[in-house]
Amino acid sequence: MDEDDHEAFVYNVAVLDHDLDMTTMKCDEEIFEINDFSTSSDWERFIADIEEILTHWNLTNSVDNSSLDSIHTPSSPTPQLPITKIATSKLLSDPHRWQQRQESIKYRKVAFSLQFFQFKKDPLPTPSVSIGLPEHCPQSNRNQSNQSWRDMSSIENDWPVTGHPLVRYYGLSQFLLIIPLNGETISTEDRARQLLGSASIALHNLDCEIPFFCQISTSNRRLFMGVGHQPNGFRTYFDIIQFPDIPPSYRYFNELMVLFKKKLYSSFSYHSNVITPKDESVDEYRSSSSNDPTVRVSIRFTYLLNRWPTEYLLFNPSMDVHNLFVRQFSYFGTSRNNSKAHEQIMANFANLYGDPLTQWQLATTWPSVAEELITDNAYHSDLQPRNAPRWSLRSLFTEDSKNSQLYCRHVELFRIFIQLGNRSPNNPLLNLLLRNTDNHQQQKDEQETQDIRQALDRLSTPIHSSAQSSLLKTTNTLLVTSQLLSNLMSLAAGTGSRQIPSEYIEAFVENLFDDDDDEKPVKNTDIKSNDDDNEDDQLGKLKSAPRDSLSWRLANLVVNIYGQTRQPFNLAQLWKFFLQKLRTHWRSGRLLPHLDENTTDNIDHGSCLFHQKLQMFNSCIRQKIKREHQLDSNVKLAEDSDEEFFDAQDEEPEMNENQTAEGQFYPLKDVKGQPMYLLSYPNRPIQVPQTQDPAPMTEDVLARQVTHLAQIDDARMKIRLQSAGLLSDMEAFKAANPGCQFEDFIRWHSPRDWIQQSSSDSNDETSDTFGLSRRMRESNTWNDLWELARPCPVRRQKRLFNYTKEAEEILQYFETISLANLVHYLSPIVCKSIILQLLQYRKEILHFIRSNNRGDSNIDFLSIDMVSIEHLFTIGDYERLIDVQLIELEFAMLKFYSLLHKFFHSYETFFHRQKKSFADLFRDQQSTTTTITTTVAKKQPIARISKLKNIGQTMGEIKGSDFIQFILELISEPEKEFTNTDMIAQLIVQIFADSDRFQYEQSTSVGDRIPTATTTTTNESSSDNDKMMKPITSGSLPPPTGKEFIIRATGISRPAPYSRPSSHRMYCFLANDFRIASAFTEDIAYF
Q1: Nearest alpha-carbon partner for 876 in 837, 831, 836
Q2: Which residues are in the Rab3GAP catalytic subunit C-terminal domain (predicted)?
Q3: Spatial separation of the C-alpha atoms in residues 15 and 30, rounded to whole Å
């Protein structure tokens, strides 16, 4: 290439580069100005987020939802329960059978919570009672009914008593719910439709058939809108409306039925909404007889009882306790009136008025009735409650923790006692007596300055003089019973003071030390079982005090007195007299009663510290008695005095064989019974010396000793400090065996360290050779102590256990103890006493149930966790023990007592003329029965629905086991179902009638009451007008508090007459407000 060509080439390349740069700049400008419409919007991202969450939860392609049963919910664990095959209303009410998952999601700037609720059931399909789904329907019709419609069509899912509102309204076993967060609300229908539209797209894309709901308005209104995707081109729309008042035009079923038909189609007609076989486009699906339109309704009337007549209250001070069946249980203390105040903790029910049962909900149900058979309007109604084929009763007990504490008096006494220790100062308890003395003197001075006329009036009319003399007489005879304590507090309440006079407190303390209780025979109840033995074994591990011991008695008495008076001053008086009794026993040398089962000085470290200190005090008294009455074989020395000590001389003469032996007990013998001799003097047998017992120590003293030894670094000093007992034994051994050696002492004191060194040969005449073990040969501590030991009998040794000092230290500590420390010491005893009493009451109920109910009884409501009780007791967490275990156990027993009391009064009232006793039902379970006959004056048209063909026949036999089984199911199940022909139904109606009579008498004066003729229990219910003018008679129910209707329709075409038939549902609730929850299905393929 020449030079010109080269220049031309360079020029062309430069021009080309310039053109490329210009082209790139133009492209960049064009790309910058392009609008990209492929970017996802907020609405599309919201749908994608829903799909992502549903995919993560494995809710895609859920035609039969069979894969949902294996879902795991780690965020909300639930207890493992038996898997059921079908979801009934009773099971739907169980919160433990529901699984819940939730995820956060956002739409624009609004945060939502997407939740999934699912009922755990067996994945195997099980046929249930459904409406409009016959077995011979075509397969296409089966596919049209997915899981949600199988739930809504099943009458087994009707009327769940608890759970999510959507479960109550629709009976669904699974559903999705989106809820706005951070105080946001969906207040307009447009916003709700936008959310449901997004959800509908997501459900359709994933082929998910689970209903999707969104919460509208505030949560307390329980309003929802929803959509459900179904196979074969169907979609269900869920809507809920709510009015604060019932519209006048929709108070009866016939009016609601008109509303339902209008909602189905504006011009409702069976023939205009269903394609007939005459149509040219008819096919096998549309001409099937299974698609004939049907409308059926399930009805429930609910009656509430939340105001109990006085005689039905479990706690009523005006009752005659001797005539009450439930008061025969020892829980209420009727059988404890003659028991002493220290034997057990006593709950006072005198001022308690109320009942743990707050409400009864009686429901009369017509399960599935053809709508043309019912007439219910303003002029006539076939829905008479006595003709309902199915009745159910639900018991609601108080859920307020304050009310439960109010009724659980035994546990509450313990809680009050614990709180007393928490808020009490650390000042000595006896200081309260000094302050009270000053206040009393000041009040006395003020009293003397009052008007002399008022003083004379008081002297002329003494208050409660007869009661005081009676109580004083009882006190002098030391018959201080629980009834005396109750009477004493009634007397104190009458005088306006909560302080108990000192003479009565002293009498209570005297009863603590009364020995007459030891001669009383022990009550033997044959109600023990294997479970009781296990409970006793576990209770024996609790670190408390033995039952009926002195510490046990004192703890019970302290709680009883404080529980009755709530005055710490009374406890100070009690403690003062208790200390006086301790000093009296110490000075007179009398052992404390009800304390030790044996005569040894061993301290039971398995008991609480307070009991250990009393054991230590008793050991001091025992050592004092032993020292004062110790007899020597030759002479009684003056050093036996308990107030003088003999310290061994610092230098003693060396031991020799001519020294006189002292303090010998008995000769030592080997395993063959042959006497053992001294090694240095083969003719002298080894004498076992009299030795001092080791000093007993409580666990707090032992802990201080261990801490002190841990602070010493010198190992030899530690050993010397722990070898005081060994040195005493060596000195006593030398005094009893003059001329003995260290080896002789080892042969007596530690035989296992005297071992055989060599054995004799059979042909040799040499004997066996024994000697010290290697441990003793190398041990310098024992040898050093042996060298330091001097011959000194035990009577001249310095005492290892200075019982005088120990006893005075205990008394001094008790005199300066604070109320908080006293409560702390007695709390383990009080806690165990409460637990034992509750378990005894529990055993009494179980024995009553098992002896009167031959079948299997569900007594899970009385179950207890002994492992948890033992753990909380051991760590001293009494507050949690009360809240978690004890209060639940006592409240469960109160449930049984309350229901039993209600049926007792109803039975006694019902059979008042026959003079039949409720207690007779439980005396002879096999033979005692009661029969009652009722008649019906006129058969209503609804009788065809309830199928009561034998309504005039004998209602059946009633036994005590029937009541027990009914009560147990009423406690353990959400609601108890029965029929109107049961005898119990008559008694329940009697209770409702008595309650209505009670409310009528409370709301009207005696002169304004309308006299009513005497009616029997077989009368029919009065008309509505009569009910407004007079109280309900004993044989009828009051007007229902709430009415519920579930209307189901199948074979109805929506939204157009030529659409394929589908199923529809509407739930109506009429009570204080008006609520309708509808589920209408539309054909989105042929609309």
Answers
A1: 831
A2: 990-1086
A3: 23
Cα 753 to Cα 284: distance, rounded to the nearest angstrom: 105
Q: Is 853 exposed, middle or buried (0-12, 13-18, 19+ CB in 10 A)?
A: buried
Q: Is the peptide bond before 1055 cis (omega within 30 degrees of 0)?
A: yes
How close are the terminal C-alpha atoms of the chain, in Å? 82
E-strand stretches of 306-453: 357-370, 390-397
CA separation for the pair 778, 776 (Å, rounded):
5
Tell me which residue of 84, 326, 176 sits closest to 898, measured CA to CA. Answer: 326
Residue-wise DSSP of 377-389: SSS-BS--GGG-S
Could you tell me which of 667, 679, 782, 663 has the C-alpha nearest to residue 732?
Answer: 663
Beta strands in 568-711 (DSSP E): 664-667, 687-689
Decide: helix, strand or coil at residue 342: coil
User: What token pair was written down for 899?
Assistant: 């229901």
Is the sign of the CA dihedral 189, 190, 193, 194 positive or negative?
negative
- Considering only 156-170, 255-269, 813-827, 1066-1080, which range has the smallest mean pLDDT? 255-269
So where are the chain's domains?
Answer: 39-243, 646-759+767-798
Nearest-5° Cα angle at 434, 430 to 435: 110
Average pLDDT in the chain: 76
Chain length of the chain: 1087
User: What CA–CA distance (Å, rounded) separates 368 from 516?
Assistant: 71
Mean pLDDT of 231-258: 91
Distance CA 817, CA 811 (A): 10
| Encoded tokens for 860 | 């899970």
- Tell me how far apart the alpha carbons of residues 1083 and 144 are, in angstroms, rounded to a whole number: 11
Residues 856-900 have pLDDT tens digits of: 666 788 888 999 999 999 999 999 999 989 999 999 999 999 999
Assigned token pair, 1074: 């008006």
Residue 739 Rama label (left phi>0; alpha psi -120 to 50; beta): left
